[in-house]
Amino acid sequence: MKTVRYAAGAIGALGMLPATGLAAQAAIAATTHPSATTGKSVRLVSRAAANTSICRTQHKHTSSYYIRGYISYSTVVYQQPCVAFVEVHRYHGHPTGEQARIRYYSPYLTGTWAAQSFISGSINVGNNSIRFSTSATHIGISNVCEEIVSAAHHNPVPGISPVCQTT
Predict the structure, then answer these.
(1) Is the pTM of this model over 0.70?
(2) Contact indicator for 76, 90 with CB cutoff of 8 Å
(3) Cβ burial, residue 71 (10 Å; 0-12/13-18/19+)
(4) Are 149 and 91 in a shared domain?
(5) Do 113 and 51 belong to one domain?
(6) Count of domains in the chain?
């Protein structure tokens, strides 16, 4: 069963599922895996997953009237700064149709951002606010900026300035 599933996945990834033949046999041979119960197996943890807890040793936040940005970060992973958690609060209102735009800046890319994400939030009616958060790990980051934007076209919401934290 596993052999068939892996083979179909490999053939589909190669774009050859309809055209079976020699390429299909090569894909099956390349993706056939032994059962997990036979022999020894070692599970490797990805570099990003291994660093998630390491990247949460320090915390920093900045605030303005409408927005507060908070990061968990570290400066010791592979001799590079890393960020593992970002939280953004939008205060004094909870309109629908807004997202948080998070930009991660690298010290190696002058003047441009290295990564960007758009995050939907959860409304807290009692506090008249919206909370946005992400746990994505980014390595080689020196600065993080959060901004409230329109979910429809990602333009900044007028009157709400971005906030930034330096690692």
Answers:
(1) no
(2) no
(3) buried
(4) yes
(5) yes
(6) 2
CA–CA distance, 104 with 100 (Å, rounded to integer): 13
CA–CA separation, 133 vs 31, rounded Å? 37
DSSP codes joined into one string, the chain: -HHHHHHHHHHHHHT-SSS-SHHHHHHHHHH----TTSS---PPPPHHHHHTTGGGSEEEEEE-SSEEEEEEEEEEETTEEEEEEEEEEE-S---SSEEEEEEEE-TTSTTSEEEEEEE--EEETTTTEEEEEE---EES--EEEEEEEETTT-PBPTT---EEEE-
| Residue 103 predicted with pLDDT over 90 | yes
Q: What is the pLDDT of residues 44-68, one digit of tens each?
A: 334 444 445 778 889 999 999 999 9
Per residue in 12-41, pLDDT (tens digit) is 444 444 444 444 444 444 444 444 445 444
The answer to whether residues 77 and 121 belong to one domain is yes
